[in-house]
Amino acid sequence: MRKVIMINRISMDGFFAGPNGEMDWFIHDPEVDSAVHGKEQGDVLIFGSTTYREFDSFWPHIASDPNASKEFRALADELTQMTKVVFSTTLKENDLTWKNTKLFDGNLAEVVRNLKNEDGTDILIFGSGTIVQQLASEGLIDEYMFVVTPIVLGTGKPLFKDVHKFNLKLLRTMSFNSGNVLLHYAI
User: Fold this and answer.
1) Residue 95 within a domain
2) CATH no. for residue 160?
3) pLDDT tens-digit readout, 8-48
4) 177 inside domain
């Protein structure tokens, strides 16, 4: 059975975005990207509409940008080749311009259960706080990778709003010169 792995940046006080969705507080660090990317390989990405729009506005263009780093272009190609599963009631099929993207407006838990039973590698979730909340409540996320940024936002969008209590088992930690810390947990 495939695993669902959540990868998310969070503030010290547990927010994945500021109160208006802003993410300008992230400390970008190529070492963190390498540590996360080097460990987890997936062939499916799960998004909500907001995160999909953000990724779609950035990554497809990076692949052909001669000014982008070789690593960014390679990652853009990899993301493009992956199956992208978008859960949205506001997007329509013709809004999905990124190659290999499927739209679902129905039962999130049922679709993810079916994906977990299909052949393939792991299923990854980046961002998409409401998707994380719903799947966490259903017990469908197998591993959590948090990139904790050394900032206290004080207010914002909590990653685990209205999620029932559950325990995690620490798999690994890594700290970086940027001040970011990677925390990797399993259920």
Assistant:
1) yes
2) 3.40.430.10
3) 999 999 999 999 988 899 988 888 888 887 655 789 999 99
4) yes
In this prediction the pTM is 0.91
Domain count, the chain: 1
Sign of the dihedral defined by the CA atoms of residues 93, 19, 187, 32, in that order: positive
Q: Kindly provide the b/e burial profile for residues 70-93, where b requires at least 16 CB atoms within 10 angstroms of the residue's own CB.
A: eebbebbeebbebbbbbbbeebee
User: CB neighbours of 71 closer than 8 A, spacing ≥ 6?
Assistant: 30, 33
Q: Could you read off the pLDDT of 114-152 as tens digits, one per residue? A: 999 999 999 999 888 899 999 999 999 999 999 999 999
Tell me which residue range forms the domain holding 98. Answer: 4-22+29-182
Residue 142, domain member (yes or no): yes
CB 59 within 8 A of CB 49: no
Distance CA 34, CA 30 (A): 6
